[in-house]
Amino acid sequence: MQIIDGKAVAAEIKKQIAAEVAEIVNAGGKRPHLAAILVGHDGGSETYVAHKVKACAECGFESTLIRYESDVTEAELLAKIEELNQNDSIDGFIVQLPLPKHINEQKVIEAVSYKKDVDGFHPINVGRMSIGLPCFVSATPKGIVELLKFYKIETLGKSCVVLGRSNIVGKPVASLMMQKGMDATVTVCHSRTKNLKEICRNADIIIAALGSPEFVTADMVKDGAVIVDVGTTRVPSTETKSGFKLKGDVKFDEVAPKCSYITPVPGGVGPMTICSLMINTLAAGKKLYYK
Ligand code: GUN
């Protein structure tokens, strides 16, 4: 069994990005600039955005954090998004989700110009991804694919079970895994799926993205399977300084001995998600997909 070290892979990729940014800047080019909008004080969102800002510094990017209290109006937020769409100094930006209930998340996602949508959430980017056109691919699915490629894990003809059908992870990762180049045979399971355990037991690769701590147990995993754990549920803990611990969707201790490869939580998919956002921001700075 090999543990997939997302932290190390992400560090390596960020080093390569920093070298490319130095070259761009030395040649008189513009330093890529990512902006992030954070609404409210949700603990998880605060942590993720702080990691994103830190990763920007590691990559040599400029970053701007724009904060609002949770009572910000939808109109105020949409006005800021329009301002960022028009601001040429900003190459890409994200609005950290989830948003307070009084704000229509889909409206916000669609207000971001698809040309600056480094989260890859805009329907134009989602649509282009699903038909294999160049675009911003959302960070977690992209990070998962990069990890599988980095470890040269065979996906061609393999049976891949995706647990969860969210717009952010389940649906896009299923789409990427079935595309030419990845060539997996994909089954998507969700809360209404029958025989879920049996389906999992036949899988060569399981991508668990349910947000249900320790859902995947040893009896659901066939010997030699590849396990990708996308779960990041925050649970109270006395073991950490923050008072929280991240729990994955996989019961790691009992599942790991059965696997050929497994991603840990933390240190697996999480760092790669942020790294993919950096790859997208570099692409935005280079106007790689859209002029
Ligand atoms: N909330 C959970 N994951 C993400 C993400 O990838 N991007 C944004 N903007 N919000 C999130």
Describe the secondary structure blueprint for this structure.
Blueprint: E1 2-3, H1 6-26, E2 33-39, H2 43-59, E3 62-68, H3 74-86, E4 92-95, H4 105-111, H5 123-130, H6 139-150, E5 159-163, H7 170-178, E6 185-189, H8 196-201, E7 205-208, E8 226-229, E9 233-236, E10 244-247, H9 252-255, E11 261-262, H10 269-285
Parallel strand pairs: 1-11, 2-3, 2-4, 5-6, 5-7, 7-8, 8-11
Antiparallel strand pairs: 9-10
Could you provide a short overview of the structure?
By secondary structure, the chain is an alpha/beta fold. It has helices at 6-26, 43-59, 74-86, 105-111, 123-130, 139-150, 170-178, 196-201, 252-255, 269-285, and strands spanning 2-3, 33-39, 62-68, 92-95, 159-163, 185-189, 205-208, 226-229, 233-236, 244-247, 261-262. The chain is built from 10 helices and 11 strands.
Question: What are its keywords?
Answer:
11 strands, six-stranded parallel β-sheet, binds guanine, 291 residues, alpha/beta, 16% strand, three-stranded parallel β-sheet
Identify the strand order in the major beta sheet. Answer: 1-11-8-7-5-6
Described by its quaternary structure, the protein is single chain
Instruction: Return the string of H and E elements.
Output: EHEHEHEHHHEHEHEEEEHEH
Q: Ligands bound here?
A: guanine
Largest sheet: 6 strands, parallel
Number of strands: 11
Written account of the structure:
Strand 2, helix 2 and strand 3 form a beta-alpha-beta unit. 42% of the residues are buried. The mean pLDDT is 97. The radius of gyration is 19 Å and the shape is globular. The N and C termini lie far apart (45 Å). The strands form three sheets. A six-stranded parallel β-sheet has the order 1-11-8-7-5-6. Strands 3-2-4 form a three-stranded parallel β-sheet. Strands 9-10 form a two-stranded antiparallel ribbon. The protein has 291 residues and is of the alpha/beta class. It has helices at residues 6-26, 43-59, 74-86, 105-111, 123-130, 139-150, 170-178, 196-201, 252-255, 269-285; strands at residues 2-3, 33-39, 62-68, 92-95, 159-163, 185-189, 205-208, 226-229, 233-236, 244-247, 261-262. The chain has ten helices and eleven strands. The structure holds guanine. Guanine (GUN) binds at residues 94-97, 119, 139-140, 168.
